[in-house]
Model the fold of this input.
Amino acid sequence: MSDITSQSLFELTSNIKEKKLSSGEITKAFIDRAEKSKKLNVYVTDNFEKAIDQSKKFDSNPNFDLKLPGIPIAVKDLFCTNGVRTTAGSKILNNFVPTYESTVTQNLWSQGAILLGKLNCDEFAMGSSNETSFFGNVQNPVGENLVPGGSSGGSSAAVAANLTPVTIGTDTGGSIRQPASFTGTVGLKPTYGSCSRYGIVAFASSLDQAGPMTKNVRDCSMLLEVISSFDQKDSTSIDYKRNNYSKELSKDIKGKKIGIPKEYRVDNMPDEIEQLWKNGISYAKDCGAEIIDISLPHTNYALPTYYIVAPAEASSNLARYDGVKYGFRSPGQNLIEMYEKTRSEGFGDEVKRRIMIGTYVLSSGYYDAYYLKAQKVRQLIKKDFDDAFSKVDAILTPSTPSSAFKIGEKTNDPVSMYLNDIFTVPINLAGLPGISIPAGKDKNNYPLGLQVIGKPFDEQNILNISYALEDKINFKNDISDWWLRE
Amino acid sequence: MSIDLKTVKHISKLARISIDDEKANKLKGDLNNIFEFIEKLNELNTDNVQALTSIAETTLRFRKDEIKSENIREKILKNSPEENKDFFVVPKVVE
Done:
C-alpha cells in the first residue's frame, strides 16, 4: 500500500471499508505531515486534537455505510464551523467563533468526515493569489515562492501537498478552478443553486458557490455527491434531482458535442497554453467526441462586468462588519468613528478597494451607468452561453491565461491580477458548472489546466468528459516535498 | 471620466472606512485604473436588453416562522468585542 497521505479519497475510503486502515491511522498521518509542512502556511486554524478524538470515536463504532467514513478533511476558512474559529482570512474576523455550521460542511460531517482544520484563503475570498490573506502567503507546493492561486489557495496547496485527501473551496469568479490549475489538482464550481450558501461567509451572493477540490476526477464526483443538496436555509438553493455522480461516472463520451470558443484566444497567451488546448481537443476527438467551433461574442466584457457586480454585492454584504456584535473593534469617540476606524483597520487593502468600487457604482447618480449597465451585459453573456448550448453539450477552454506566478509579482497592479480570471469569470456570471483538470506543464514545469463548462445542472456530463480526458492526459505532478523539515 | 480626491473621500465616508490623504491618493490611482478597464462596457449598446437580476430564476419560498435553534444567547454574546453578559456595548449614542 502506498503512503497514506498520497492516497486518493477513493483509495482511503476503500481501505477503511476493507479494514486495511483505521480512521485513527489516516488522521494521524495527515496531522504528522501537516506538522512538518508549516512552511506552506496552509492552515489558519487547526483542529488536530479534536480530530484525533473523533477518529478514535469513529474506529470504536465505525459506520461503513457512510460516504466519507472517518475521513479527515480540512476546509477553506470561509465555511462557518460550529465552535471552531472562522476568519475568512481577515483581521476583522480574527476572533470569530460561529455558533452554527454551514450546510456543505454539515453534509461532510453527516457522511462521517472529520474536520482537520481551516485553510488559508484570500481575505473574504477577494484575490487570485492568496496574498490578500491577513494570515500571510501560502506557498505553492509546486515550487518555492510561487503563489498557489486564489482565493482558495490554502485549499489547493493542501490537496497538492497531500495535507488533506480532498477539500472544499468557494468560487465567485474562479477561486476554485484557478488555484486548481496552478497546483495540478482538480476543482469544480457547481451550477449556481447546487450547493447551499448557508453558513458561507458571503462575498458576492449572486455568484458564490462552494465546490470540491481534489486529486482526481473520481474523488471530485464523490465529494460533489456529498456536498450538493437542496437546502431550505438558502433561498437560492434549487430543488432538483441530483445524480449519484460517482456511481454514474463514465469515460464513455462518444458522440458528445464539445464546443471550442474562438474568443478564448487572448493576446499574449503563452504558446504552451494554445498547445495544451489543442492537445485537449485531440484527446476529446480520440474519445469519440465531436468538436464544434463556437462563438461567445461577449467574452471580453465579462471581467469588466464582474468588477462591477461582485464589488457591488460585496460592499453590501460586508456592511455587517461594524465592530458591534462580533469580530475586531477599534475604539472611537463616538459610534461613527468606531465604525470607520474598525473598518479601516480591520479590512485589508484589496477588500477596501472592492468595497469602495461597490459603494461608488451603487451610489446615487452612478447606479444606472454602472450597476444597471453591468446587469444588462451579464444578460448578454448568459445569452451567449444559452445560444452555444443549443449546439453543443459542453465547452472546452484553458482554465487560466498563465501558469502560477511568483509571490509579489502582481500585487501592485490590481488590474493585472484581475486578468487571471478571464476564462473563469464568465461561467460564474452565467451560473454554469465548470471544472478545471490538470492537463500539462509549461516550460518551468508548472502545471496548467483545462476547463470544461457545462449546461446548468449538467455536472455529470462535465465530470464524465473530464474523466475521459484525465485518462488520456495521464498528468503527473511530481511534487518534490521541498518544504518538508524533520 | 476620472475619480478625483474629493470623490474618493466621499465614497470612503459612505463606506464608513476612514482613510488618510496618502491612502486616498493611492486609492485614487487604483480606482481610476480599474474604472478605465470597466468603461469598456460602454462600447456595447444595451438599450433593449433586460437586466439580469437573478441567475437562478427561482421564486422565493415561504416557510413557517418557527424557532429552530436552542438558546444560544450566551454563545453569541461571547463573540462580542466588548464584554457584557446581557448586551452588546457601543460608544454612547444619546447625549
In short: The domain at 4-260+277-295+386-473 of chain A is CATH 3.90.1300.10 (Amidase signature (AS) enzymes). Chain A touches chain B through 69 residues (CB under 8 Å). DSSP finds 15 helices and eleven strands in chain A.
